[in-house]
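Lab meeting prep.
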Amino acid sequence: MKILVTGGAGFIGSHIVDAYINLGHEVIVIDNLSTGQKRFLNPKAIFYQVDIRERAQVEEIFATHQPGVLNHHAAQMDVRKSVADPIFDAEVNILGLIHLMEIGRTTGLKQVIFASSGGTVYGEAKQIPTPESAPTLPISPYGISKLASENYLHFYRAIYGIKFAALRYGNVYGPRQNPHGEAGVVAIFCKKLLKQEQPVINGDGEQTRDFVYVKDVVEANVLALNLKQPLIVNIGTGTATSVNTVFDILGRLMQSTLPKKYGPVKPGEQRTSVLETSLAKETLSWSPKFTLERGLSETIAFFENES
């Protein structure tokens, strides 16, 4: 199978590229390296350093390779940045997808696997854990852009017959996550604790998230290749974990004595996000295999090797 992975040098995308190549697929990667890193690229992938908004260059790549599957992970993924600059967020996350779909529909694209956001599309959900049937009321431009993208995928399915799976991720963590951005609290804490620097917890730390390990997320992206029907599905653990708890587990595993230090609440940040995942089991035969402690241990090992 010929698969184009956008964001394939990034945290989640690079792991997916590895998995697809290990399964024998031909993989083409588009990444502008704004957050991705060349060292995470699989050497067997065909790589283009291109921004998905650069239409002429993207058209050339599609015309050359004619991928049957698009795995779309390129994104502006910072909730805080989306609040500060919603225009940029929409340009990358909404217009970027439309560029890809408009080009793909004329070059034989058959299927899209899309990285959506279970952590943001529901907003402050009343039902916890939150099922896919819950109202979608995102409170950040980032969440709005992910929801709009899902609706565009419905459109391209209805009009052009392009199958899609929108995977609504919980809070993904693991090796290769960027410790310098705003999105990855696990990576940020790991890097700080390794350097014996004081991490800052936004708010009171009791905000809860559904932390799902990157290897489990990769497995969902592999299983989604076999889908015959359009699907929007949560990819998480169904377990609520507070940021304070993550800090405590990391501190114990890393034998750190640094105390908790609290800072201001992030604008646009939700209080609670936990996903109900029975649909993933039913439709994809997917369920998470990694406990939080095991996933955090592997993540710590990665950052220790990096330092």
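Slide two material, second protein:
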Amino acid sequence: MKVGVIIPAAGQGRRMGRDMNKQYLLLNGRPILAHTLSLFFSSGKKFDQITVVVRPQEKEYCYQNVIQKYFPGKPIKLVSGGETRRESVYAGLKSFSPEIDYVIIHDGARPLMPYPVLERVLKGIVEYDAVTTGVRVKDTIKFINGGGFVSNTPDRGKLIAVQTPQAFRYDIIKKAHEEISSDIQVTDDAFLVEKLGYPVKVIKGSYDNIKVTTPVDLIIAEAILKTGD
């Protein structure tokens, strides 16, 4: 089977409170995005295409400071993203050749995905056609009404915190992006596939697989890296 990878890295990272896009901040001396890409190149698995989606004005910076510096000669395609995550992922999907069978989508700001998670995703996608990773929520979740009062408390045992990687049969995820209304607010790709009527299997993720979006996350990521050394 032929597998493509999309790394969305076109976000602005406002919550990080820095002028620089969060994916280029240094984590243990290397850009976060470089760590994320290394997960795939060091996995021992064959990926037929890896596409990194960045903001148009950052393409040259990404090429010089991440791709050329850490992955010279590697088959990485850089494409320009859009205003939203959905637009950026779709730009990545359009960059693939028709021979691609499955697509893995993994946030550029998740540099600590353990290899067993990737293994489970690769096995799951063949069996289920659409998978997402996730972990059980640790905190109690409350629904609130418009006035800010609690309206309901869902059963925590039925809730997960969704992560990436998410993976899909290529034709399914491309169809979902093309056919589901652009007016619908989307925060993950599994939601689009759900709206198309396909079941999405949840694959066990990892609490170490954090998304680095705030300064505190960066400190936590450094600690996780040191623990793994």
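Talking points for slide two:
The chain has one domain: 3-228.
The CA atoms of residues 21 and 153 lie 36 Å apart.
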